[in-house]
Amino acid sequence: MSPPTPALRHQVIKIYKELLYLGRDYPQGYEFFKTRLHKAFASQKDLADEAKIRAGIKRAEFVKKEIEALYYLKRYRTLRQRYDKA
Amino acid sequence: MSGLRILVPIKRVIDYAVKPRVNRAQTAVETASVKHSMNPFDELSIEEAVRLRERKVPVSEILAWTAGPAKAQDILRTAMAMGADRSIHVVTDEKDASSQLEPLGVAKLLQQVVQSEKTDLVILGKQSIDDDACQTGQMLAGLLGWSQATQASKVDVEGDMVTVTREVDGGVETLKAKLPMVITTDLRLNEPRYASLPNIMKAKKKPLEKKTLKDYEGDFSARLKTVKVTEPPPRKGGVKVEDVDGMISKLKELGAL
């Protein structure tokens, strides 16, 4: 089976790499994150419908935003605890 | 006016999530093989500089600057990934005691950077989370004779007037000053963006200049001597008392009554 569209394939790999990079700072560790991320992508590997793949990429983008927000909030709360509540 | 030239000095510190350990000689905190990242307050200042540009304030250049060991290059890359245009790295030797910088030394260095780069606005983090000195910005403003607004929670630039709002006890204070000036950032100024992988890659193409302390004139050596570094005493657990009499006798025992 050949991939439906090379452009989409490229997008999927790109978002996967970006998520992997984000995972380096994950609170429960990189290994934890990496295996789960890999599983999540592998479970969708049989998607052939273009619209469904696009939806998957959208979901990945959403997860990326959520993780960035998680990192920001975690840091903000820690710093607030340390510096604001004197 | 052709546009603001913003200088953002940053510092590489032990990551906020790492619990620092005192070294065996009790002279400093262990830094070897500990995760480091950019001082969170400095991320706020980079973000603010980038946001000024995005708010269509004429900004001609955002320069990130740091003094530190060779690895401090990474945080300059992060700064450029967030939106700084170029950076200068003053490489210091971690092991060489004569190149250990204190806030005054950094302020003196920055004074020369400001003069050689013709900076109009300096945005610094209010303090670094390792030394917690909270001095560099104020000292720099003093050396330059510029206006300063510390712990800004909102910054507005209009022409050459800058309005800074800061959180003080029981309210907010609004300061107005003319450029050039020094601003230090507070925690609630903005929400720093994440330096994403593609942006980090792009940042590798941005210019990074390497310098040493010898490129600057003056004496930057430390004036303070660290006598001893110890960890805070462990917290003692509390006790539950049965009733009022129990509490009073406990208080008497502790000498509080």
Task: Describe what this molecule looks like in 3D.
The complex is a heterodimer of chains A (86) and B (257). With 86 residues, chain A is mostly helical. Chain A has one domain (6-84). Helix content of chain A is 77%, strand content 0%. Chain A has 3 helices and no strands. Chain B has helices spanning 40-54, 73-82, 103-117, 136-144, 197-203, 244-253, and strands at residues 4-9, 12-14, 36-38, 59-68, 86-91, 121-125, 147-158, 161-168, 171-178, 181-185, 208-212. In chain B, the strands form 2 sheets. A 9-stranded mixed β-sheet of chain B has the order 9-8-7-10-6-1-4-5-11, sandwiched between helices. A two-stranded antiparallel sheet of chain B has the order 2-3. In chain B, helix 3 (103-117) crosses helix 4. The mean pLDDT of chain B is 91. Chain A binds chain B through residues 17-18, 21-22, 27, 68, 71-72, 74-76, 78-80, 82-84, and chain B through 16-17, 40, 129, 187, 191-194, 196-198. Chain B: InterPro entries: ET-Flavoprotein_bsu_CS, ETF_a/b_N, ETF_b, ETF_beta_N, Rossmann-like_a/b/a_fold. Chain B: Heterodimer of an alpha and a beta subunit. Chain B: Residues 26-220 form the Electron transfer flavoprotein alpha/beta-subunit N-terminal domain. Chain B: GO terms for molecular function: electron transfer activity.
